[in-house]
Amino acid sequence: MTRARMSVVFPSSMTSLLLVVVALTFGPSTAAFGPPTSPTTSRPAPVHHPGALIRKRARCVALMVPRYDESTQRWSPSSSEEEASEGYSPLGSLIRQGPVPFVRRLVDPDSYDQGVLKMMATENGGTGMSRDEAQGNMDAYLQNPNDWALQKLEEERTGVKYDYANANMDVFSLVLTAAW
């Protein structure tokens, strides 16, 4: 027999399942979104760059951000707008960033929610972000951490912010997703 006849052929559904299992096994971990690294405070040290003055002024506005409880080592929402029910569903993750964040949300919803809450509290120089924006960022991070980090560096360099909360939600992208 020749080598071509001896090769194993997987159906496309089996290949998709294999890719999801590999992505979940070797994919990014949400452990990076655990407790803050500073032992004396629950807020990270501010990053000083050209937008720092704007951020300092933005802190004057009363923003409620999730709080970190050292005794339980968990993030908790400080208002009803920060609860998981206020964000978009796992189907929204599937549409925006694909199967990896979707499956991660279904397999480990608590770790996903803790990552979103930490991102809500620590991003934007400690001034926080909305639940949808944090979920969009978390989904993008889980899909491809390297591209997400590169995009964040570009945002700092150029000042132009990518809207992960509404990524792939325009009509054309939804039609292409449904066709795929």
Order of helices and strands: HHHEEHHHHHH
What's the arrangement of strands in the largest beta sheet? 1-2
Q: C-alpha Rg, in Å?
A: 19 Å
Q: In this structure, how is the largest beta sheet organized?
A: 2 strands, antiparallel
Which parts are unreliable, with pLDDT below 50 for 5 consecutive residues or more?
A: 38-62
Q: Give the N-to-C terminal Cα separation.
A: 37 Å
**Estimated helix fraction:** 40-55%
Q: Mean pLDDT, nearest integer?
A: 73
- Helical/strand content category: mainly alpha
Number of strands: 2
How many DSSP helices?
9
Shape: globular
Strand content: under 5%
Task: Break the fold down into its secondary structure elements and pairings.
Blueprint: H1 3-6, H2 12-26, H3 52-58, E1 67-69, E2 74-76, H4 90-97, H5 99-107, H6 109-122, H7 131-143, H8 145-158, H9 171-179
Antiparallel strand pairs: 1-2
Q: What does this molecule look like?
A:
There is one protein chain. With 180 residues, this protein is mainly alpha-helical. The protein contains nine helices and two strands. It has a two-stranded antiparallel ribbon. β1 (67-69) and β2 (74-76) form a beta hairpin.
Features:
mainly alpha, 180 residues, 9 helices, two-stranded antiparallel ribbon
Quick structural gist:
It contains nine helices and two strands; from the N terminus they run αααββαααααα.
